[in-house]
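During the no-cost extension, the postdoctoral fellow (Dr. R.K.) reprocessed legacy sequence entries with the updated structure-token encoder. One reprocessed record is reproduced below for audit purposes.
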Amino acid sequence: MYGEYQYQIERLMKINLLVMACAFGICASFISKPLIRQKPNIVWIVCEDMSPHLGSYGEKIAKTPNLDQLAKEGVRYTNAFTTAGVCAPSRNAIITGRYQTANGGHNMRTLGASANAVDAYPKGFKSYATVLPENVVGYPQYLRQAGYYCSNNAKEDYQFVGPPTMWDESNKKAHWRNRKDKNQPFFSVFNLEITHESQVWARAKEPLLVNPKEVDVPPYYPDDSISRNVIARFLTNVMLMDRQVGDLIKQLKADNLYENTIIFFYSDHGDGLPYVKRELHHRGLRIPLIVKAPFLKAGTTNNQLISAIDFAPTLLSLAGFPIPPTIHGEAFLGDKKVLKNRKYVYAARDRMDSEIDRVRSVSDGRFNYLRYYMPEKPFYQNIAYRLQNPLMPHMLKLKEEGKLNAAQMAWFRPIKPEEELFDTQIDPYELNNLAQDPKFASKLKELRAAHKKWLLDFKDYGELKEMDMVKQWWNGNDNPPETAQPVIYRTKNKISISSQTIGASIGFRKSTKDAWMVYDKPIDVKIGDSLYVFAQRIGYSKSEKSELIK
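Re-encoded structure tokens follow.
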């Protein structure tokens, strides 16, 4: 059974297999007894760059009937937040269930310039994959150990390239329908990119589904035709995304899976619009979260605070897999559900492409505290990628012409205070800083203390210069370390594999046409079998070898 990881091995292999066990984070301290119940099928539908613009959350202009129906059949969470207002650091946290600042995955982005030529990076920047701490792997690897077929449709963007053991398949054609055994439980992620920031300008010439004259313009934008058209384009993309969700639901229903499949819908962070994306205001961090499951009461609302780092442990809890101690998040559903709701959510902002900054935030759901570690830097950063949004050069032009009001000029202040505090209940746009207001001194003190405790409880690589951090990981060398070559041991008709690199994932297959399997116990073999194995610690180079069983 998948919950058991105790194996009898020969004396000479004990040390190596202990190293392997720790590498998978399956030490005895969190091994649980195997569960008898059927493992549930789970689907995650993930949209990009979208705050809660759904009818079920009060959206009046964009029509989202499919997601509204999902909310009627599930639970709508109203206080879910990501740990970053931008995709790669946020996804680094989600895939590991850990704060990206403790992983070293906090800068946007680490794997070098994307295919888009406008991305830029600081002088001296060297592309790198985040070297995750020892024994930290992506949650899909645990699910594969639990017997799940794990598929990811298209996007990863984790700040590292996952080892081949992370997914059964990760590409645009990945789907639960591709598993060979239709009785195998599955976990499938579908990334819907149509709401991404870039689609505002990429789809600029496509027909709009909402009237620009009807949209709400937030006070930090000028109320004119350009702002209205950009917002209308974005909300149109939300409506198109909702149709894609409807298509996925139709597929589940066609396969007679919908009723008994656990479905999560969420966004990787808030809206992909200027002065929203990349920011640590609630508008950049608060996301929609809908969960439909057979055991949840349909049509209900849950107001508890949830961080995106809670998604991974909740997933493992629902699958009946023990939650590794390396995970920072807390399960809010399933067998390992934490009964005491979290008190705060935390977030971080660091380098964005070419622009360096360091900001941290903590929120109790109503009050949002921001700590600026580089107050000498302006709020606005001239990020080349964002300049493609037609609203961005428009606002810069109006600024130079002196045509922006005080609310619109707030973004362009030349320096920052060390602290800000906002009451998002009475000031949803977070324009009125209460940090100097004596009436809120106790709340300021509380959240300041919570922030300091967070820094003590969890390592923050943001304290280091980025390339110094990488130099430490690489032991002062110009290239990442190599994972130790996997070692193959033969005992009668079984093969055991280990790697001297602590924290390495180990995979195997008997044919190059097969998918890589997660190694977590000795493998049955027979004479004449070919065996291909690899070992890789995330952030290190991968080592492979093959052997013919004689």
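The longest helix spans residues 225-254. Confidence is low (pLDDT under 50) at residues 1-36. The remaining legacy entries will be reprocessed before the final report is submitted.
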